[in-house]
Amino acid sequence: MTPDLGKPDKDRPDLVKADKDRPDADTAQPMAPANQTLDQAADRPGIGTMLRSDHPFVVTVLAVISAMIVGAILIIASDGPTRQAIGYFFQAPLDTFNAAGWAVRDAYVALFEGSIYNPGGGQALAPLSETLVYATPLILAGLSVTLAFRAGLFNIGAQGQILMSAALAGYIGFAWHLPWAVHIIVAILGGVIGGAIWAAIAGALKARTGAHEVITTIMLNYIAVNFVNYLLGVTWFQAPPYNQAVSRTVEGNARFWPLFGADLRVNFSFILAIAATAFVWWLLKYGTFGFRVRAVGANQNASRTAGISVSSTYIWVMVLVGALSGLAGVAQILGSANNYQVTASVDAGVGFTAITVALLGRGTAWGTFWAGLLFGALTAGSGQLQVATTTPPDLVQVLQALVVLFIAAPGLIRLIFRLRRSDSSGSAVLAKGWNG
Amino acid sequence: MSDPVKTDQPEVTTETVEVAPGEVVAQRSVDVRMSTARRVGIGVAIVLIGLVTVLGLGLSAGSGSTSFDLNAGDVGIQLPKVNVPGTVTVIVLGILIVLVGVWQLVRGLQGAALRWAGIAVALLFIIAFLTWAGSAGKQSVQIASLLQQTLLLATPLILGAMAGVMCEKTGVINVAIEGQMLFGAFAGALFGTIAGTWVGLVAAAVIGGVMGALLAVFSIRFLVNQVILGVVLNAFAIGLTGYLYGAVMAKDPTGTNTPATFSPIKIPVLGDIPVIGPLLFDQNIMVYLMYLIVAVIDIMLIRSRWGLRTRAVGEHPKAADTVGINVLRLRYQNVIIGGCIAGIAGAALTIGSVGQFNKGITSGQGFIALAALIFGRWTPRGALGAALFFGFATALQTALSLFQSLPVRIDSDLLAMLPYLATLFAVAGLVGRVRAPAADGEPYVKG
């Protein structure tokens, strides 16, 4: 159990020294080749070298494969026919493998058919459309968490921000009667402002009193849930005849336009997600404010010495973070995802999944975008999994968590697949402990 | 920025506030004088609470007198009901709160004194609120059952917070309490049904320990960021218990998800004491286990060699290592024990309470336990108090929603916000600049 790490061989001073330089060194790989790889990579980075190193892309692919292997074990363990076949394993061992193989194949085929292409389905593009519908809020909320991470803040509050945004955007959508185009813009702005204010509370508390954002955003989540529950019980918000906890329905003028005809649910909010990704990418790469964010995230004290106001950076980054979550809420309420009605579950668990999306995206805007697409595809696939197989759809959540677990521990992936260490493996995700 | 003199200059008030988060880093152990802005801010807030009590509650209180019922049931020694005049009591309590606020404005309390003032304000306000709630004079306020509910609701939270104490005192952040509890709740229900309640309890502890071991291996061996790791482990726990629920429990509910629950055991002499007897000493085994765990951790942390070593490792692992303490082994050990305690906390939700397991049965209680841990400043007693407060707020909300004759009707959803709003205020105002164990969340690499 106790790792060899931290017990360098005293007879070999070179190893002692090397371990100091490599804090997360794993012992599976001797030192010399790793250094060699680094040198080679600097000279002529070949695709072959990359594939055998812990390049982010390689680690991500291997993490997905590892997660699917663990997932396959779960599927087999819970599969009825397989368990029956195990009962007579020694009479006919092939039966067990056969049944297990089919169970795994069925489950993963269902995931594929639900998210990418279903040869037996009616609309050929419907699965892809569903993937984009589920991916949109994940990308937007994921960007929100990513941006917070870059400032060294941990935004667990996307759920609350989405709820407040959806409540406000939904209210504007059903209660105000505005002309075409104006209505949807006002509703989007309303949602963005709702989310921004909710996150700014946590930012201001952090800046002014030092209250840790993990605690304040969790509390704000609960307050938002109860507030929306309250709204769903008052007459000016609830849909008549007031017997169900749903709001009135957003008017047509305030709904997102479908992108590819009314048959497919994918709508304009996906374009918003692409635009937001580009914006966050630009902000972090070229924006002055983005530079401040990264500086504060990397080293608070140095930033302060350099003349950056840490507390105003915290507040304003949280405003942006909340605005991005707000867009996710807008996508949920003004898009087709929730039937254009506010409910207590209008966030659809996006707030928490967004954290894993951001982790998978390694703190970069486009990384988050692709991670959001992957998780959106998995979520879309879980529907088909439920319809076509006996495997519980919760499998998808396990897969998502496992992928991120493997990503978060690149040392583990290196150990399993005997990868070489490269200098490109880092993640830009920063989350500080309580004293940060 | 880290200059303590600056914080006392009134003309740089805004800048004083500006540097606030910096102080946490720069002056962890130095007790600085409180800034003017903070002193006035907290003072004004307390005065406002007092005024709300006097004007809001006092003037809207019913004309009747409030009666408090201290008896848990019809058995045992019965105490007479306590009757107080509604309006007058509320106003007097409100004025007391205002006085505390004025004192804070003038004297600028800090540290322990400020915490006690905060607790006093909270107690005064709660009593005033209860008096107000019963002032219509139609129903008596059931203090005993309110406190009993508090203890039941707080037990998983307290245990969860103790799991946090075990991990964080030794320098490993545990955001995964929620996930550990979820696994404990699942294992408790599953094995409780198959093999009996006691086996269920042991299984819950073991599974919680396995989750703890996972946290330990990834954070200590693979040096994963511990806050992130905790969130991922929670997601894993939600997914896996949901999956197993669908694959096992949903297919055969009677055979896998109908555990017997622990029934209350009355402790002979202690259980007969009026009021406290039924409240504290006529509970099920989970509650007694909770007493034991809190007491053991509280005493051992301060008085034993293990406690000294744990605190040393949590504060300054390098120094601990230098004097020959095996830092990593102690961390592994404490994090795994912490996981076991969190597993028991989860079992309190199934076999200690309703019996059945449902998807996501913890519903964020692990996070509340985490908040209680921070709120309680990483001490067992503080966490106990904070968890009891959360339990009380939830119990109060349930009690009030059943209360027919409030002077002014309050929506139960708005009431449900109360504990979270209170935490927000308390975290921001009273314990904003908390100080976790210095090495909390920092992996230790020898060298």
UniProtKB/TrEMBL annotation, chain A:
Signal peptide: none
Annotated keywords: Cell membrane, Membrane, Transmembrane, Transmembrane helix
GO terms for cellular component: plasma membrane
UniProt-recorded name of the protein: ABC transporter permease
Topology of this chain in the membrane: Multi-pass membrane protein
Pfam families: BPD_transp_2
Entry-linked CDD domains: TM_PBP1_transp_TpRbsC_like
Protein transport is among the record's keywords: no
Record region (Disordered): 1-40
TrEMBL record, chain B:
InterPro entries: ABC_transp_permease
Entry annotated with the keyword Transmembrane helix: yes
Residues spanning the membrane: 40-62, 82-106, 113-134, 146-165, 172-192, 198-220, 227-245, 285-302, 335-354, 360-376, 383-402, 414-432
Topology class, membrane: Multi-pass membrane protein
Primary localization class, coarse: membrane
GO MF term (any one): transmembrane transporter activity
UniProt keyword list: Cell membrane, Membrane, Transmembrane, Transmembrane helix
Subcellular location: Cell membrane
Key word Transmembrane helix present: yes
GO terms for cellular component: plasma membrane
Protein name (database record): ABC transporter permease
